[in-house]
Amino acid sequence: MAIKSEIKLLGTAASPFVNRVQFVLNLKSIEYEFIEENLACKSELLLTSNPIHKKIPVLFHANMPPICESLIIIEYLDEIKPDVHRILPSDPVERANNRFWANYIDNKFYPLYEELRLTLGREGKEAIKIRIMEGSVLLEEAFMKFSNGKAYFGGDDVGYLDVVLGCFLAWTKFVEKNNEFKVFDEVRTPRLAEWTKHMWSHEVVKDVIPGNEPIMNFYMMLQKYRPPRAI
Ligand SMILES: N[C@@H](CCC(=O)N[C@@H](CS)C(=O)NCC(=O)O)C(=O)O
């Protein structure tokens, strides 16, 4: 299938969900056009292509209807280019387990970062930090199971869960710095601490992971439009 330049990605550099899609496009050597979205003033393109959620990323493939939701997009890419760097395992049970943990990461683990930002007061923040660290231990256990002693969830190279969790690396660093704790550390989560280093230096990841400036700009936008609250 001719894919070159038929793919367009609507997003912004600081969005982990957009970065997730970029990782997979890179892994599969799919060329794409990046369309910058301004979430402070959403474009007509975003509102019409993702009218339900009004969120990025949105993927456009030739003249087909837009595809929304990052996990759906990366699975779509895996399906249209299965011959290059498969990210999901071929075994249905393993695939189901991968999806289970992706669901945990997106719906339980990462939302705690946002909850930490939104919570005012030392006590409340400390309680959320504990929940994040408990989550990191669960992820360490999952990593041990999936990686089989190798460097990645996917084994010898980046797989589905590396993409799903790895897209949050820059935000993890930011959250750690802002809140003076470690999400993944050498003592509590030694394998994930090691994995973090592999991910940061991985070819397809390192050019996508946003630097401090886009992260800080995005953070300031969140603070403005969705400010913290006292609980
Ligand atoms: N479940 C969605 C989450 C996407 C998401 O939260 N995107 C954020 C940017 S990081 C967004 O577009 N936010 C706009 C809004 O909340 O109005 C996915 O996986 O694609």
From TrEMBL:
This is Uncharacterized protein. The lineage of its organism: Eukaryota, Viridiplantae, Streptophyta, Embryophyta, Tracheophyta.
